[in-house]
Amino acid sequence: MSKVKETAAVIRQDRLAEGVYSMWIHTPAIAAQAKAGQFISVYPRDGSRLLPRPISLCEIDAAAGNLRIVYRVVGGGTEEFSHYQAGDPVTVLGPLGNGFYPQTGSALLIAGGIGIPPMVELAKTLKKNGVTDLVSVIGYRNADTFLVSELEACGSVCPATEDGSLGIQGTVMDAIRAHNLTADTIYACGPMPMLRAVKAFGESHKIRTQISMEERMACGIGACLGCVCQSKEIDEHSHVHNKRICKDGPVFWAEEVEIG
Amino acid sequence: MNTKVRIAGVELKNPVMVASGTFGSGEEYSEFVDLNQLGAVVTKGVANVPWPGNPTPRVAETYGGMMNAIGLQNPGIDVFIKRDIPFLKQFDTRIIVNVCGRSTEDYVEVVERLGDEPVDLLEINISCPNVKEGGIAFGQNPAMAEAITKAVKRVAKQPVIMKLSPNVTDITEMAKAVEAGGADAVSLINTLTGMKIDIHRQTFALANKTGGLSGPAVKPVAVRMVYQTANAIKLPIIGMGGIASAEDALEFILAGATGVSVGTANFYNPYTTKEVVDGIEAYMKQHQIENISDLIGIVK
After folding, report:
1. Are residues A205 and A258 in the same domain?
2. Largest Cα–Cα separation, chain B
3. Which of A75, A173, A186, B215 is spaced 20 to 30 Å from B270 by Cα?
4. Residues A240, A191: one domain?
5. What digits encode the pLDDT tens for the residues B189-214?
6. Which residues of A touch B271 (CB under 8 A)?
7. A189 and A225 assigned to the same domain
8. Selected residues 218-277 of chain B with any CB under 8 Å from a CB in chain A
């Protein structure tokens, strides 16, 4: 596998919810190699914004050579991306990171907010691999949701909303308890407090758990050591307790990492 | 056309190298650029023992630049000698090892360990703004800078480059101090100490509160300091600070740099080093310059 940096073409862009956008990008060289849970670096054109934005892959269509990213506008860089239209150039580098480790047996996908997009490709992969017992527990602020139908196409979906306007009122953990959910494997992506709760849940219920982490990144390829997380064991690269989220992750088995 | 330059008696095939800490030991970037095309690879700082570095967030973007407070995370000299030097020896490029420490003894220990290794040059980091002990303390006081240079030179088997901090009133005082201490070359600039506040979280953007500013935003400061230093000392200078293109690199060369390092640009364009090498050659061809050394410091 080798990473590719190229100026690709935007195929389409849609607004999915308040501040959340979906962009399909034609990049056959990256799409051919990409797996669920990996990410790409997307480069703003504005020269004052130097660093690439790491964005998880939501869907991979290797046959057509296309990738889909779903992202939230959080600053000037993602704001710029949200204005791209079909046919516009977009500079990307990928595929980056290791992605999820799909297991056989039942699956519980737990995600919150902008942690939801990578679950779509993961759900599709698991379904294709023959996993039939697949439940997605997804948390939103309110009923302004996104990617629900994509996840419903692969299994059942239990939403939770902070304001109770859809599904269980509360967090994804409240939804898991309310529905008394369990599985052979948990896959999770979302904010740190959620990942901490999921890791504790997996430990107490003896369910093997994979979590996808995020951190501020510079290079995205493992050189700058900007995006480390604390690892239980001494890491291979620096021989301390710091795994690189961009290169060693972003997906880790929960027992590998300490979530402070 | 001759792009070769000499730094402290060591010949480099071209003046283009990388700034320590922006290129690891080359492995991650070897997927993008042929390391054989670089004048030298300058490794990320290595200490006598592994350093875990600072808490995250460690990086933040700023206008035309970025700040970092990695805190010199490194695997320590044992792993470095076993893994990183053999990796770099596969390539026809010079190896410059950046050395960091918290005390004179730390630096001396690493330099002694490297004595019998196939390393071409040593770069002594006395200017990292992100570690509390040592580091920059040596780089902001001329007497201490001279003393550490002498201590390192006493044991070093390879020529010694002292890496200078821009976070001083007069960089030529520091340059003269390390020259007096016996340094063979200087490299500048390290990052400028800065701060960014996240107004949404109402706290510092970096866990370390302050960080080192780098990238195109700092280039004019760096060019000015290279120019001043070139006019103050006789040692060869490796210039860096915001180099993202051959044009940028040529500014440093014309200001007095013998070598030029690509730093932050590696993070957003992993092909930068090769582009700088090619661009310098194109410039020499266009301006009918036979020897790159004819360009060094000619802007007076």
Report:
1. no
2. 56
3. A75
4. no
5. 999 999 999 999 999 999 999 999 99
6. 5
7. no
8. 264, 266-268, 270-271
Same-domain status, A113 and A185: yes
Range of the domain at A175: 100-211
Whether the pLDDT of residue A238 is over 60: the answer is yes
Does some domain include residue B286? yes
Q: Which of B128, B217, B292, B296 is catalytic?
A: B128
Pairwise CB contact (< 8 Å): A239 & B66: no
For residue B247, what is the domain's CATH number? Answer: 3.20.20.70
By C-alpha distance, the chain B residue nearest A4 is B32
Residue B149, in any domain of the structure? yes
Q: Is A257 exposed, middle or buried (0-12, 13-18, 19+ CB in 10 A)?
A: buried
Count the domains in chain A.
3
B128 is catalytic: yes
Look at residue B82 and give its three-state secondary structure. Answer: helix
CATH code (residue A53): 2.40.30.10
Structural domain boundaries enclosing B18: 5-51+72-193+213-294
Pick the residue of B35, B54, B56, B128 with the most A CBs within 10 A to test the interface with A by mutation. Answer: B56
Helix/strand/coil for A4: strand
Q: What is the mean pLDDT of chain A?
A: 96
pLDDT of residue A236: 87
**Structure-token pair, residue A183:** 């599985």
**ipTM over 0.90 threshold:** yes
Beta carbons of B262 and B238 less than 8 angstroms apart: no
Chain mean pLDDT for chain B:
96
Token readout for B287 is 């301006």
Of B161, B194, B139, the residue nearest B20 (C-alpha): B161
Q: Do the beta carbons of residue A113 and residue A190 sit within 8 Å?
A: yes
CB contact under 8 Å between A5 and B270, yes or no, is: yes
**Is residue B95 situated within a structural domain?**
yes
pLDDT in tens, A37-57: 999 999 999 999 999 999 999
CA closest to B214 among chain A residues: A50
Tokens describing residue B176: 């003269």
Residues A90-116: tens digit of each pLDDT: 999 999 999 999 999 999 999 999 999
